[in-house]
Design a protein that fits this description.
alpha+beta; GMP Synthetase, Chain A, domain 3; 3 strands; globular
Length: 75
C-alpha cells in the first residue's frame, strides 16, 4: 500500500523527489502519512479535495484486497 501511495503521489506532483511516505501501525490500523513539496500540495489535494479522496479510495481498496485497514493523511 505504501508503494502504491508513493507511485500515485509521484505521478501527481512536479517534484517527485520530494515525496515522502511514512507508515505507522496502531491497533491493526495502518496510517500512511504523505508529505510533498509545499508547491505541490494543491495538486495532491485537488479542487474540493477530489484528488485526495480518489487517492484515499484507491489505497483503501488495495488494503481491503490485503484484508487490512488503512488511513491516508496528507501533511
Amino acid at each position: 500500500m505504501k508503494e502504491l501511495l508513493i507511485l500515485l503521489a509521484k505521478n501527481l506532483v512536479d517534484q517527485p523527489d520530494m515525496v515522502e511516505v511514512t507508515e505507522e501501525e496502531n491497533d491493526g490500523i495502518t496510517t500512511l502519512r504523505l508529505k510533498v513539496a509545499p508547491d505541490d500540495m494543491g495538486k495532491v489535494i485537488g479542487k474540493q479535495g477530489r484528488i485526495a479522496r480518489a487517492v484515499r479510495t484507491l489505497v483503501k481498496a488495495a488494503a481491503i484486497h490485503e484484508e487490512k485497514k488503512v488511513n491516508v493523511e496528507i501533511i
